[in-house]
Structures are given as C-alpha cells and as structure tokens.
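2024-03-11 09:14:02 DEBUG pipeline.ingest accepted 1 chain
2024-03-11 09:14:02 DEBUG pipeline.ingest length=386
2024-03-11 09:14:03 DEBUG pipeline.predict start
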Amino acid sequence: MFKRILAFMLTVICMLSGFAGCGKNKEKNPLDTDAPPATFENTPIEVKPNTTNYEVPVPEELKYDISFDEYITLPDITSLKLNYHTMPTDDTAINNQIYNLQLQKAKRTEITDRPAAESDVVTVNYKSVFYGTEQQISDQKNVEISLGKHIAIPALEDAIIGMVKGETKTADIVYPENYAGNTILANSKATFTIELIKIETAELPELNEETIKSFQLGGVTTYEELRAYVLAWMEQENSLYKQDALYNTLVRDAQLTAMPQAEYNYYIDKFDANSTAAGASVGETLDGYIESNFESREAYEKKREEYAQDNVKKDLVIHCLKERYSVEVTKEEYNLALNVTFKSEAEGLGITTIDDFYNKMGESVYKMELNYQVIQAAAEDVPDKE
C-alpha cells in the first residue's frame, strides 16, 4: 500500500538529490520533517482512512468495454529501452539525505562579516542559460545550498565560495556527467548568474533517538532504521521515475486506429463544461469565454477536439494494459487513495471537506490510482536501465 501512498504524494515532494539539495523554493518531500509522513513497508500507516466508505466513481462512458485491438496498438513493452534518470543509492547519497534531515533541525547563525566558505549554508537566486545562447535552463529563487557537500552541482558550489552577501556574479559551469536532475543536461555547459542572499552556519543536532524521532518518519527511531528508510525512499523514487518514463513512452508511441465514440463524446462534453465553468467564474457565458480566450469558434473546437483525442488515447493505453494485467482498483484501495490525496491536496484546492473533495475530485483520484497500478504492473516487464 505504501507505494500508492507515495504515488499520490508526488505532487508535494521533490527530489532531494536534485539541483540544490534542500531548496526552500521547492515543494515538500517525504523526508521533510514538517511534511505529512510517508510510510514504507513494516512501518505504521500514518494516514487513517476516513470512516466514510465511498464508492469507486467510474463513469459509464469511461469503462471502455471494447475490443482494444480495434482501436489501439501498443509498442512491445518487453523490448522498450527507457531513458530516465535515477538518483544514486550509495552510502554517500544516503548520508546526504540524512544530512538534509539534520539541517532542518539545525541551530543557524547568519554570517555578515565574511565571504561564503565551505561548510556554510547559503541562500541564492540563480538563472542559467545554455553557454553562448540566451536559451534559459532555469530561474530559481531562494534556493538553499550546503557548500562543500556536493549535493548541488559541485562547480556551482565552488563558484559561490568567496562571494559576499548581496553580491551577484556570472560563472560558466559544466553539468556533471552523472547529473541526476536531467539526463539532457549531463555534460552540458551553462552560464549561471548567481545572487547571494544569505550566508549561515548550521550546528547540526546529534543523531540520537530523540532527534531521529523528531523527523517523524513513520515510527523510525534508530540510526539503522533511518538509513533503511532513506534507502527505501530513494529506491522507490527511482522506481517511480521508471514508471513515469514508461507511461510517457507508451502514450507517445501507441498508435490509434479508431476512436471510441462514447468516450470521445464524454471528453467533448467535459471540455464544454469546464469552459462554461471557467466563463461563469468571471461572469461570462460560454460564448463570451470563447470570444475572450480563443481567436475564433473554430479555434475553440479544434482545441476541444485535441483535448478529447488526447484523453481518449491516454485512457486507451491504461485500459488496454488494465485488461492485459488484470488490474482492478478495489474499494479499499480507492478510499485510502482518496484520503491521502485529500490530506495532501485539498487545502491548495480550497476544499475543506472530504465529501466535497470526493464529489469534485473523486473521478480524478480513481484515474490516478488506476494509472499507478497499471503502470507499476507493466513496468515489471521492462528491463531496468543499465
């Protein structure tokens, strides 16, 4: 069950081994101490299912009770070679993740009378473009970097050492060969514009039982359990990267041979309903919304058709695999997924009750859970990246 919980938390987590390790501007991840604790096998489930037992909301039009061979052809899954990045899972990587946890509990002191030095924790803004061009790679604000830890790009850390608070500098930096943040950027040369906002020292807490308990990681209390937890999290992240790459590849390479009409009409109607609601939110009719947001009625209808075709294709991929791997989302699985997603997403959507969340988002949660289970099953037939 923990894998499905993690799947739904992906919208509120970030990859710790990414560009800047523990950037403040990034979203929460399961190792953040103030984030809802994720759970791994053999640890208690922290999210308690709601007492309401909701029915799995599958619209009749989206049951896809068809012969898939007549509508879609999928590539051979067992021969796919997927391109996806993985975070390292060696001792150094585990130690860096644990360091990030300690850093969140550290006693900090701001430094204003000297340049940034190795072992400082700095806050920076930076922009990067491909070397010799104006093509932007990234534009980040209030990113935290621990100098000397090499959790961020080592050359970026080196460029920051010696800067003073308020200073801005430009540096040409080559992404590492094994850069985990993006395989496309590996070995690429970029020009960074870096603004140093703050310099701090950090006094880390001792890794004793009290500190480890304060991380609130699903009942983890010992150093050995902590390392096992972090390793399990990283391995699960790598598994999810593979699954994401598989899904994108299947959607890209699947060939549609026909369009199931009921399902297509369902998404046409849904696009109109969403547009009508968007117009009503600003006091416009559907016609007024179309006039305000599209060049013509024909442009609106073209966008609506693309929306319907894209969603039907994605559905066909999932439902074809659902049939192939005999996947069914049980009521128990759905209700747990609904509760986890409600706890992590409802506040941002302005939804205060789970009943309201079920009515507005229940179908989307079902599709997310179905997609996850189907792609997880299919990924087992795809060789891991070498």
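2024-03-11 09:14:41 DEBUG pipeline.report Residues 2-88+222-379 form one domain.
2024-03-11 09:14:41 DEBUG pipeline.predict end
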